[in-house]
Design a protein that fits this description.
CATH class of the largest domain: Mainly Beta
Strand content: 25-35%
CATH architecture of the largest domain: Roll
Distance between the termini: 49 Å
Radius of gyration: 20 Å
Number of domains: 2
Helix content: 25-40%
Length: about 210
């Protein structure tokens, strides 16, 4: 049976306990700041003005992914990429964003929801430079809610357990995916393998 009401949903999953129900905050604590300084990766969730959603990964060395402007404001660096910028297009139409910040090996995550704006320069850009290269732009988020999320999803998935890792077991390598699903005229599989070789691909990170 399809679930169509909050009452049906709550009848199945129950109501949150006191800790889960009351853990949201509207400003960063020292612990939140320490987490943001240590995280190298997050997922940015956005939606356009029609509610169509996007989730985009963002990654940088710890300390250079996020800049804390103040207790209620953070900024994320944007680096050179494929230039689709689906999430940023959404931000221009609908500023509401959700962010989930990860630390490798940790099951808990830090979640921040708020309203975003885009900037092509600001005084903090120098603080977000990597290898001497400043961000090409930054997304500034005015925090509405911040809280920690529990580790059960990571425990169930064994995401950080090396014994569970087998990245090529059932899916082809990146070059094969690009050739079959994202073909570009004149590019052979050998060309793509060379492009995605780490010592070549990593040259374009910054």
């Amino acid at each position: 049976m399809e679930i169509t009401t909050v009452e049906q949903l709550e009848a199945i999953v129950g109501e949150p306990g006191e800790r889960a129900a009351t853990k949201e905050r509207s400003a960063l604590t020292d612990i939140d700041r320490a987490w943001l300084a240590a995280t190298p990766f997050c997922v940015l969730a956005t939606a356009d003005d029609r509610g169509r959603c996007d989730a985009s990964p963002k990654g940088d060395p710890p300390g250079q992914l996020v800049h804390v402007v103040d207790d209620r404001t953070i900024a994320l660096a944007e680096r050179p990429g494929n230039r689709r910028v689906d999430g940023y297009r959404n931000v221009l139409a609908n500023p509401h964003v959700g962010l989930d910040f990860l630390i490798p090996g940790r099951g808990d995550t830090l979640r921040i929801n708020g309203r975003a704006r885009l900037f092509d320069d600001a005084p903090f850009f120098d603080d977000l430079a990597v290898h001497g290269r400043r961000p090409i732009l930054a997304m500034v988020v005015e925090i509405e809610t911040v809280f920690f999320h529990c580790a059960k999803a990571f425990s169930r998935s064994r995401l950080w357990d090396p014994e569970s890792w087998n990245p090529t077991a059932s899916v082809p390598r990146r070059a094969v995916i690009a050739q079959q699903l994202e073909p570009v005229a004149g590019q052979s599989l050998a060309d793509l393998d060379d492009y995605y070789r780490s010592e070549n691909y990593d040259k374009g990170l910054y």
